[in-house]
């Protein structure tokens, strides 16, 4: 149900300029669960901005029991979007859809994201300096669809490889600066990058 409205899943369609911009986007996301006591109830998705205006909502428990619930501001404590990156109600940043790695590469996504966050200034410089986003008119969902395929054309590889290499180096430098040897977890990405480069030779 979290995919009924496109604002609830996938890649953010634009770069948010400020908090108001982000919260305006969140207001379009869907809320579809509420907890009463120890029971979680599910209902047809409702945009967050419209939720509190509903006098009552027909909802169902996981066992199919139908109830009528009153919307409450407290329901937003457990409201989640399902973007690939999300700011949680706990104030943490959550990276999703990284569970599809081979078991041997379980720690790769965490190491990559940590390295980039530690080296945030360099990351921002890389992102500002790349022309990749301009080429695709800053259409982030389209960019993700194009480059998340198993088979990428040589033309598209030439576009993405410089950015890929820069980001991996940025993450590696960030982890090296931490001094815990965590950069070893990036080895599977280094191997994949080398294989992609070989395709262009």
From TrEMBL:
Coiled-coil residue windows? none
Q: Which GO terms describe its biological process?
A: glutathione biosynthetic process
- Identify a single GO molecular function assigned to this protein: ATP binding
Q: What UniProt keywords apply to this chain's record, in alphabetical order?
A: ATP-binding, Ligase, Nucleotide-binding
> What InterPro entries does this protein map onto?
GCL_bact_plant
Q: Does the keyword Transferase apply?
A: no
Domain of life, per UniProt, equals: Bacteria
Q: What is this protein called?
A: Glutamate--cysteine ligase
Species name for this entry?
Streptococcus thermophilus M17PTZA496
């Amino acid at each position: 149900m979290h995919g009924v409205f496109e604002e609830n899943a996938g890649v953010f369609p634009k770069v948010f300029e400020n908090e108001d911009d982000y919260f305006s986007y969140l207001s379009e996301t869907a809320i579809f669960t509420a907890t009463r006591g120890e029971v979680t109830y599910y209902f047809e998705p409702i945009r967050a901005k419209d939720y509190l205006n509903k006098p009552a909502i027909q909802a169902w428990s996981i066992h199919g029991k139908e109830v009528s619930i009153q919307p409450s501001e407290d329901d937003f404590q457990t409201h989640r979007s399902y973007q690939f990156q999300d700011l949680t109600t706990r104030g943490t940043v959550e990276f999703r859809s990284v569970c599809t790695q081979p078991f041997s590469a379980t720690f790769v996504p965490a190491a990559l994201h940590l390295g980039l966050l530690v080296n945030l200034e360099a990351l921002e410089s890389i992102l500002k300096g790349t022309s990749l986003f301009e080429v695709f008119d800053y259409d982030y969902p389209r960019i993700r669809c194009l480059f998340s395929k198993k088979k990428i054309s040589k033309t598209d590889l030439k576009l993405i490889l410089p950015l890929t290499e820069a980001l991996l180096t940025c993450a590696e430098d960030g982890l090296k600066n931490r001094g815990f040897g965590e950069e070893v977890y990036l080895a599977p990405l280094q191997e994949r990058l080398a294989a992609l480069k070989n395709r262009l030779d």
